[in-house]
Design brief:
- The chain is of the alpha+beta class.
- The chain has 2 domains: about 200 residues, 3-Layer(bba) Sandwich (FAD/NAD(P)-binding domain); about 140 residues, D-Amino Acid Oxidase, Chain A, domain 2 (2-Layer Sandwich), CATH 3.30.9.10.
- The protein contains 9 helices and 20 strands.
- The strands form 4 sheets. Strands 4, 5, 6, 13, 14, 15, 16, 17 and 18 form a 9-stranded mixed β-sheet that branches. A 6-stranded mixed β-sheet has the order 8-2-1-12-20-19, with helices on one face.
- A hairpin with a 2-residue loop joins strand 14 and strand 15.
- The termini are close together.
- It binds flavin-adenine dinucleotide.
Length: about 375
């Protein structure tokens, strides 16, 4: 059955979900005040949600856990990414999966754990790189003394290009876009054919068969009115854009993403680097946290210390309180929650959209 579905929130979760639902033939409405503005050209250009602030790192295979929901979601997303890229890539919004990703070991023990992981997963595209192989990179890597793990299928996708590509696809699939806040949700009463009602900030009423909440930190408030408690805490992340003094024209030996002590270093263009992202509870950026990050916890090589600051930005992640991220739940008939992705919303966008699509299919097949 074709359903009318409202997706609330147009970050990467909501936009990806709206696109996939429209592809399944549903009539989709996407609501978010941010839809009034174009996707920024650069993250530093304006106020950001989690998605526009993100680095877009996709670390699906270089993940230690070998079972459980988190691993299944990561693996499923990484399996879906190539098809997403292929379908979304367009001359007006070119998109590619930039690979590989390399994690530097911080100690001999960590190197040993990496080696064990590589040995345990022979067909996962993971390789261990011994420390004597790491000295060819130019500019040199920080902390290259213990070896590293290379993941050939992990890497990153440019989140702004992704959002632009998704926006194009929404138009192509006739997704109705409403640049407004949803201020209240009202559940259908028991009369037959009664629908969910959305009240928007302008006081408009929209009626739909199903609602999917993808509002990150805005989700809890909408749910509270309906009696569902899903509190989430803000965890701020800061990113720096640096101009290197030493020309790094080739980034010889550098991967798409280099991870050092949990900090991501991402080459940009010929001689720029993005470095991020901090984990700061709350909504206020701490200048000390960004200083520590720029020094890579005192592991920064001289060329990084000497770099010039070109720009910086921050965004908020939504971390579910007392529940594992993300929150993928059918809260009651016709009400789905796909939110609280915390650190991995970009990585998990394809698996999230698939989960929503499958639940919508289940509901629309079983509903009278
Ligand atoms: C600095 C930083 C770096 C990151 N790096 C990575 C990374 O490398 N890889 C990765 O996978 N993840 C990363 N993340 C995490 C990732 O960005 C988030 O998990 C992801 O963006 C969450 O997407 P979302 O669509 O759920 O939420 P958001 O992108 O935050 O979007 C939520 C949207 O909901 C809208 N909204 C809220 N309330 C309402 C309402 N009542 N009505 C209508 N709309 C509403 C908001 O306007 C907003 O646009 C990073 C995050 C930050 C901050």
């Amino acid at each position: 059955m074709i359903a009318s579905i409202a997706v609330i929130g147009a970050g990467v979760t909501g936009t990806g979900t709206a696109w996939q639902l429209a592809k399944r033939g549903h009539s989709v409405l996407l609501a978010d005040p941010s839809l009034a503005k174009p996707i920024p050209e650069r993250p530093a250009d304006r106020d950001l949600n989690g998605s526009t602030a993100s680095l877009g790192v996709l670390m699906g295979h270089a993940f230690r856990r070998s079972s459980g929901r988190a691993r299944r979601l990561r693996q499923r997303s990484m399996a879906l990414w190539p098809a997403w890229i292929e379908q979304l890539n367009h001359p007006e919004s070119p998109l590619q999966l930039e690979t590989p990703l390399i994690q530097l070991a911080g100690s001999a023990e960590e190197a040993q754990r990496m080696q064990q992981l590589v040995d345990a997963r022979p067909v996962s595209g993971l390789q261990f790189i011994a420390s004597n192989m790491l000295d060819k990179a130019d500019p040199v890597w920080p902390q290259a003394g213990h070896g590293a793990m290379l993941s050939e299928r992990d890497g990153r996708v440019d989140p702004l290009q992704l959002l632009k590509a998704l926006k194009r696809s929404l138009i192509e699939h006739n997704v109705e876009r409403r640049a407004t806040d949803v201020v209240e949700l009202q559940r259908p009463d028991s009369k037959p054919r009664c629908k969910w009602r959305l009240i928007t900030a302008e006081g408009r009423n929209e009626e739909v068969d199903l609602v999917v909440i993808c509002c990150a930190l805005g989700s809890a408030k909408l749910l509270q009115n309906l009696g569902h408690q899903r509190p989430m805490d803000a965890v701020l992340g800061q990113v720096l854009e640096l101009q290197l003094n030493k020309s790094a024209k080739q980034w010889t030996g550098w991967p798409a993403v280099l991870t050092c002590g949990g900090i991501n270093l991402i080459p940009q263009g010929q001689d720029r680097l993005w470095i991020g992202a901090t984990l700061e509870p709350g909504t206020k950026a701490d200048p000390a946290a960004i200083e520590t990050m720029k020094r890579l916890n005192d592991l920064a090589p001289a060329w990084l210390e000497d770099s010039q600051l070109l720009g910086q930005w921050h965004g908020l992640r939504a971390r579910p309180r007392d529940r594992p991220a993300p929150l993928l739940e059918e809260l009651e008939p016709g009400l789905l929650l796909a939110s609280g992705h915390y650190r991995n919303g970009v990585l998990l966008a394809p698996a999230t959209a698939e989960w929503v699509g499958q639940h919508v299919d289940k509901e629309t097949i079983t509903s009278p």
